[in-house]
Amino acid sequence: MEQKGDKRDGSDARTLAHAQAVLDGKPVKNRFARLLPFLGPAFIASVAYVDPGNFATNIQGGAQFGYMLIWVIVVSNLMAMLLQTLSAKLGIATGLNLAEQCRAHFPKPLVIFIWILMEGVAIATDLAEFVGAALGFNILFGVPLLVGAFLAAMATMLILGLERYGFRRLEAVITSMVGLIALCYLVETFIDKPDWAALGQAALFPRFDGRESVLLAAGILGATVMPHAIFLHSALMQDRIVVRDPVRLRRLFRFEIADVVIAMGVASFVNAAMLIMAAATFHQRGMTHIATIEEAYRTLEPILGSAAKWVFGLSLLLSGLSSCSVGTTAGQVIMQGFVKRRIPIWVRRLVTMVPSVLVIAWGLDPTRTLVLSQVVLSFGLPFAVIPLVMFTSRSDIMGVLVNHRVTTAVAVVVAALIVALNLFLLKETLMGG
After folding, report:
1. Phi, psi values for residue 70, rounded to 5°
2. Residue 299 has pLDDT above 60, yes or no
3. Of the candidates 194, 208, 232, 7, the residue with the CA atom closest to the CA atom of residue 100
4. Rounded to an integer, what distance in angstroms lies between the CA atom of residue 15 and that of residue 167?
5. pLDDT exceeds cutoff 60 at 66
6. How far apart are CA 218 and CA 190, in angstroms?
7. Domain total for the chain?
């Protein structure tokens, strides 16, 4: 994401001045005021963790196995926190994003391969999010999916247009949408009246129940850790607040850790609430085969009333729109970083919109489309996670913010586990078990 001086408005300038004052150690009235100018980038990246793909896996997991897999959501989001923190640290320490680091350190054939793969990942991600937004319009207003798709395209272009007015306005809109999604699910959770004792037990005592539960756990993880979010977060940090001296670098990184923990904590709550909703609404009533998002909404309405339909539809719509916007921006970062090319944002929006419109126009199953998009993501994930761990572990690249040995060891284990589970998900999906 390009954020040069001519694109920064008054709110951006105030945010940067406030941040520099905090980093210089000047007195600020309270802790929240100290933290406020650093909040935003992680909330934009966290949108990838509450996109329509998460709806599909979390609802299926809750309907089929109740609260049993809630621990998988907790563990997945802890892994995501680590990876997003490393991505942010890379942008802060080097002034380059992950794609640019790949171009600088990898052979050209490998760079071209990863770029093409990541463009495919961006399109697949955008397709799932676009279909989700169209479903949201369909659920809320009863419009045909094709009409919902065009409404989603127009709404996304309006959101992306905010970037020309500076980073703070875009951050505010995306953060507000994430907050509204969280609010929707908070309301939904209390409507459902979950069994809190059973929920607590499932969170504290990890377990599986057969091969299908392992497959769903891999699906939840695959829908949680997104390669485009890893690339994007490093780009969001590289030009936002620029410091170079070691003391201020460490101080800036500590604030960014807080940003990640808060944003990913909200995303973790939303994902957990999705599963809780499905478990309390479907599993406890013996409805264990809620296979699609459309079925989930239609079954919710007679059980919980029309209010639940609106809450569910609004959360899906906000998820799709915010994810579309972030996915398009991530695509720009990937292209610019790998091959030094940049196309107008509206052109990229149109290009990524075409497959989505075709899927809807041809009447293909939206939920199946979401599942297949996760398969494409599984191909791309190792090529985001492994380079990230490699670069952040090198002192010649990271300087004073190089990973501690313990951090590197944990990151290697997390990367290996994520790659292994995604390969398992890929194998099971393509070979049908």
Report:
1. -60, -30
2. no
3. 232
4. 10
5. yes
6. 28
7. 1
